[in-house]
Amino acid sequence: xxxxxxxxDFNELIDHNLVLLSQSDYKTDSMENSxxxxxxxxxxxxxxxxDEEGNPDNLLAEGIVIPNPLPNHIAKWCCQINEKGIxxxxxxx
Length: 93
Fold this sequence. Notes:
single chain; 41% strand
């Protein structure tokens, strides 16, 4: 990856453009930096994936941090993915 990103599990999408991000105000990025999360923060996210031949090809997205809209849910923060959506690293635009 060209830049540090926060890991998410895109299997935890709660809407087409909303993914669970963190249970706390801090999350470690792919470069081992502790990132402070707050409403409106712009973040880059990723999930490990592979192509058809088994080569690494991470899923990527960008978005903003928002409070989790699900009541009584364990996650405090979500990432609202921008209009680019989720894409593979090999398709980076």
